[in-house]
Design brief:
The protein has about 300 residues and is of the alpha/beta class. It is built from twelve helices and eight strands. It has helices spanning about 1-15, 55-65, 85-90, 95-100, 110-115, 135-150, 175-180, 190-205, 225-235, 250-255, 265-285, 295-305; strands at about 40-50, 70-75, 115, 125, 160-165, 180-185, 215-220, 240-245. The chain starts with a helix and ends with a helix.
Length: about 300
């Protein structure tokens, strides 16, 4: 009996804890400094598969919010630092590069050193990221928010939008979820985009155990149809809250380095603007709470596509 009890005790010690989908004890994810908490503004984090159009979506959403009279701050969280150029008309230096120039003495910086005012008065920041294969994106996001707070840039802001790198769901690039009230996923009516969305949903659900972030829904971008997205959403208990068709105006706006709100009043552009304003109003008013259950990889293979 004593030997059996001892064996059972050893099994309990040796059995590793199940950490799948968790964000707590045993997690290697980056945890938020309480002093870096964003207060007073509604905070949205925009995720999606790499190349899906998150920056276009974020910038046009920022422009839409500004047209509604909201004070907006957009933070790009990608080493490419191309999140805000359609708002500002230029590629601005990243926070991490500016900090390097002053040997990380943040007290030497002024707001105009790292914040650029863009279309509609939107305040634009490019957090940037560490060189490939080094450092942690979560650290960069944390330093950016800390710097903005030190310079009181968040006190007169109604909306903060984090435009986050690709579909990376590691602890570092999940850091914006620690600040966000809601996360919106940009997707398309194809397998790869929905597959990435499924993994992002799992990451957000894990974060929501310890933080206030909740899923707002998804937006179909550059998609003629939404049948595959809607089928997936119906299956897991998720919701599509926007649809941007595959119109050439989106491509032209990027080439002209402008948002759709700063383009000529062509029929397709006006229609797209209306959809962005409607989406901005939906996010501002808040969406119904959802608790989607992300699917196993094999189940997505079986769900999507043709027979």
């Amino acid at each position: 009996m004593r030997e059996a009890a001892g064996l059972e005790a050893r099994r309990q010690v040796e059995t590793p804890p199940v950490l799948k989908g968790q964000d707590g004890e045993g997690s290697v994810q980056v945890h938020q400094d309480p002093s870096a908490q964003i207060e007073g503004a509604k905070v949205f984090a925009v995720y999606g598969k790499g190349g899906i159009g998150k920056s276009s979506t974020s910038s046009n959403l920022s422009a839409a919010f500004s047209q509604m009279g909201r004070r907006v701050l957009q933070i790009g969280c990608d080493p490419k630092h191309d999140s805000t150029f359609t708002l500002t008309g230029q590629l601005q230096p990243t926070v991490i590069d500016i900090l390097k120039d002053v040997d990380f003495h943040a007290e030497e910086l002024r707001p105009e050193d790292f914040v650029t005012e863009g279309f509609g008065g939107v305040q634009c920041v490019e957090a940037g990221g560490p060189p490939a294969g080094t450092g942690c994106g979560g650290y960069v996001v944390g330093q950016t928010v800390k710097l903005l707070k030190q310079h009181h840039m968040l006190e007169d802001t109604d909306i903060v939008i984090f435009d986050v790198l690709g579909d990376v769901v590691c602890g570092g690039f999940a850091a914006p979820l620690q600040h966000a009230d809601q996360s919106m996923i940009v997707t398309a009516n194809d397998f790869d985009s929905i597959y990435a969305m499924n993994r992002i949903i799992a990451a957000v659900q894990a974060k929501s155990k310890n933080y206030k972030v909740r899923l707002a829904g998804c937006m179909a971008n550059r998609s003629k149809d939404t049948d595959e997205i809607d089928r997936y959403c119906d299956k897991i208990g998720f919701k599509r809250i926007g649809h941007m068709p595959d119109v050439d105006a989106l491509r032209r706006s990027r080439l002209k380095k402008k948002t759709l709100f700063d383009m000529p009043d062509d029929e397709d552009i006006v229609a797209c603007r209306k959809e962005y304003v409607r989406l901005a109003e939906t996010l501002w008013n808040g969406t119904e709470p959802m608790a989607p259950a992300p699917m196993e990889d094999r189940d997505i293979f079986e769900l999507l596509g043709f027979d």
